[in-house]
Amino acid sequence: MNRRIVLLVALCMIAVSPLFSQPTAEASKGYEIGISKMVSHPALDSIEQGIMDYLNGTGMQFNFDLQNCNAEIATAIAIAQKFKSDNKDLVVGIATPPAQALAQVITDKPVVFGAITDPLAAGLVVNYDKTEDTNIAGISDLNPLKLQLETYFRIVKPKTLGMIYTSSEANGVAQMELAKSICAENNVTFVAAAVSNSSEVKMAAQSIVGRVDAMYVAIDNTVVSAIPSVSEVCMKAGIPLFNTDTTSSDGIDFLMSWGFNYYTVGVETGKVVERILKGEKPRDIGAVFFDDPAQFELWFNLDTAKKLNISIPQDLLDGAKVLVQNGKKTIRE
Predict the structure, then answer these.
(1) Which end of the chain, N or C, is less packed with Cβ atoms under 10 Å?
(2) Among the residues of 186-319, which ranges form H helices?
(3) In angstroms, what CA-CA distances link 119 with 52, 101, 174, 296?
(4) What local confidence, expressed as pLDDT, does residue 28 receive?
(5) Average pLDDT, the chain
(6) Could you give the percent of the chain with pLDDT greater than 70?
(7) pLDDT, position 144
(8) What are the residues facing 246 on neighbouring strands?
(9) Which Pfam families match (predicted)?
């Protein structure tokens, strides 16, 4: 009788063992990864590509479900609900609203954010001390606004700075408030124009361009998605433009561009995904910030400088990663 019981227990253990051995998804059909991005524009597209390229180079197998919420909050929530219903192994939110939607809807699987300027203000982390248990971690694209703006002021010496920001996006509001404070410290009058979607960006630029000496565009996905229209308005008015998103500066008449290469942001986001899939807890990763100057790129458009009769100090030119002159882009090593 005892031998029969032992045999029965052994058979039961064999039958249920796959449930407890937790075979990896890649061993069968690959990890199911859902990626939701705010809108399609060069910076966010580069992040998405960087994530996939990095993960596909790890030797693990992945199936990517790529979704675009087109700057619609309701769509971002619907995508999050779809990912939850599909039982994705891990989800990624590129930019604030998609990441917030994923964090709200999905609490039992890892949520990774990419390119969130202020994860704390966005409600994606409780603090930066990694003291709270969480299923959320990711990469911040916080720029050194004070250094950027004061360098810009050194070049263009404005009395008044204009900025367009998205009033419904936490990152946009946070950067606007910080830029306003930096302007006050430097005795520069600050003029802001709020938008709620990309179709309003050109009109917002037109509404303030006659009252400013220079224009500044921070990392704001809605505004950056319409950056050609801002460039057009500024050049028509003879106003220099500082676009912090280098990825979207190709082909526009910016004066200065200084920020991340967003493909690199995607690669770093992919590394967070890999760390989690290899067993590291999101709590122990938290919000990752860039602090290496080499991860930032400084661009100058000398053609725009010539048109606007602006002289750029030689030390800044010497430190530039990219120079545009005579319609050609030169990338320095």
Answers:
(1) C
(2) 201-208, 221-224, 227-237, 262-277, 282-285, 302-307, 314-318
(3) 22, 13, 11, 20
(4) 60
(5) 90
(6) 91
(7) 86
(8) none
(9) ABC_sub_bind
DSSP state of 64: E
| 304/169 same-domain check | yes
**Distance of alpha carbon 105 from alpha carbon 119, whole angstroms:** 17
CATH value at residue 213: 3.40.50.2300
Whether residue 113 sits in one domain with residue 203: no
In a domain, 20, yes or no: no
- Taking the C-alpha atoms of residue 237 and residue 100, their distance in angstroms, rounded to an integer, is 38
Residues near 59 by beta carbon (within 8 Å), at least 6 away in sequence:
none
The interaxial angle of helices 145-156 and 170-185, nearest 10 deg, is: 50
pLDDT-derived band at 42, boundaries 50, 70, 90: confident
Residues 253-266: tens digit of each pLDDT: 999 999 888 899 99
Co-location of 135 and 252 in the same domain? no
For residue 32, what are the contacts with CB-CB under 8 A and spacing of at least 6? 25, 63, 65, 86, 87, 88, 89
pLDDT digits (tens, 9 = 90+) for 113-122: 998 988 998 8
Is 19 part of a structural domain of the chain? no
Q: Chain centroid to CA 72: how far?
A: 17
pLDDT tens digits, one per residue of 71-112: 899 999 999 999 999 999 999 999 999 999 999 999 999 999
293: confidence class by pLDDT, cuts 50, 70, 90: low
Tell me: do 129 and 190 sit in the same domain: no
- Domain of residue 87, residue span: 26-142+263-293
